[in-house]
Amino acid sequence: MIWIVITINLLLSAGLLWATRQIWLLRSAFIATVRKVDGWEAACHKGLSVSPPAIMTGQKGATAAKQKYQALVAQLQKVEMVLFAFSRFQTTVKGLWSRPRKSRISRRNEQYGKRRR
């Protein structure tokens, strides 16, 4: 009977020793995972700590570009108005200087008409 108790005790001890080792390995895996995640968090924090100044610089550059663009749009509108006025002036001057010309056929008809009269 004592041998049965000793055998059960040894089996229980071996099972518990195996379970303790598995828990120890799981604990080691958890610790490694926590260290890895902490390293990632530190790297992200280090990388993102530079971001706010970079974002502010980008926003300032975008604002300056918008202002320059608006100024250029105003200049472009003025240039378009000047070109339109010049085009209208050119058309008007061209119309005043050019006299209406009659076609050859109408001139022939007038010449023959004058001879017959």
Describe this structure in words.
With 117 residues, the protein is mostly helical. It has two domains: 1-49; 63-117, no CATH class. It has three helices and no strands. The chain has helices spanning 2-48, 51-97, 104-116. The mean pLDDT is 85.
Summarize the structure.
The protein has 117 residues and is mainly α. It has helices at 2-48, 51-97, 104-116. It starts with a helix and ends with a helix.
How many discrete domains?
Answer: 2
Order of helices and strands: HHH
Helix content: over 70%
- Strand content range: under 5%
Number of helices: 3
Low-pLDDT ranges: none
What coarse outline follows from CA principal-axis ratios?
Answer: rod-shaped
Structural class: mainly alpha
Q: Determine the N-to-C terminus distance.
A: 159 Å
Q: What's the Cα radius of gyration?
A: 49 Å
Query: How many β-strand runs?
Result: 0
Overall pLDDT metric? 85
Biased composition (Basic and acidic residues): 107-117
Region (Disordered): 97-117
Ordered list of secondary-structure elements with their pairings:
Blueprint lengths: L1 H47 L2 H47 L6 H13 L1
